[in-house]
Amino acid sequence: MSTEEKKIILGKVGAVYGIKGWLKIHSFTDETEAILDYFPWSLKLGNNTQTVEITDWRKHNKILIVKVAGIDDRDEAQALVGSEILTNEAALPELSQDDFYWRDLIGMSVVTNKGYDLGVVTDMMETGANDVLVVKANLKDGFSKKERLIPYLFEQVIESVSIENKQICVDWDPGF
Hints:
Organism: Colwellia demingiae
Helix content: under 10%
Number of helices: 2
Structural class: mainly beta
Protein name: Ribosome maturation factor RimM
Number of domains: 2
Radius of gyration: 20 Å
Subcellular location: Cytoplasm
GO molecular function, one term: ribosome binding
Largest sheet: 7 strands, antiparallel
Keywords: Chaperone, Cytoplasm, Ribosome biogenesis, rRNA processing
Number of strands: 13
Strand order of the largest sheet: 4-3-7-1-2-6-5
Distance between the termini: 41 Å
CATH class of the largest domain: Mainly Beta
Shape: elongated
């Protein structure tokens, strides 16, 4: 599969809004409206994927609602509820050398700068102050840890990230 064909999840279709086929959108982008920067959209529900065109959108209170071309009533729109919103990976902006998408970090092994294997990144959390790596500890962890929360602070805690080796090097006490 080439880079142009690889799909990423931008959000999810929520409930139907009104009777004219509008849909509520749950955006996974930092800013809700940023989901509208990535087109074309493909909607995936189960094994079915279809490319759709967004003809209109608006903000309603704190939610985003969209109008999909060819969907003009509530029943047609209901068939799309629960769909994942996908776009081509190539639509994402290029990042600087020290920036990474969360999806790139999940699955990486985490080792200390002294060579201790802390485990594997299973998730990321946003705390407001900084992002946090959720690291599932190895089964043979000498400190009997099951999980570690490590702040993603580049040059303070995170010393390096190697996409090629799928490894993050940290300045972190394994007992913490």
